[in-house]
Amino acid sequence: MAKYFLDANIILDLIDSDRGNIEITREFIKDAILKGNELCTSCDIFTTVYYVASKKLSSKDIIAELEKLLTFIDVIAIDIDTIKEAMGLMGDKDDFEDMLQYVCALRSHSSLIVTNDKNFYRGEIELHALK
Prior knowledge:
The protein has 131 residues and is α/β, with parallel strands linked by helices. The chain contains six helices and five strands; from the N terminus they run βααβααβααββ.
């Protein structure tokens, strides 16, 4: 059994059918769960997803979708130690938000980060794109 960390773009793909990846993403999630793998994301992802989705979807619809996600996705907290670790890993061209997600994945012992972000930080955890 493995643990997969889901980046914001993957969560958005699950709740916004206009993004074009909903079927691929749902199939990946279903397969991961059926194989007994754990899924997780950070608490920060929920605010990012809400903000981006609110440009197209109603608050009620977004909250309903996020509540569904909470039934099968563990949420990793971001505390001061997580922030400091992410800051310590930052290079000049790194994205701080991605670095926070990477450190959350690291701290949760995730073996895979699922993201469609081509520029996501490449550390010691394998990246997997669904596109």
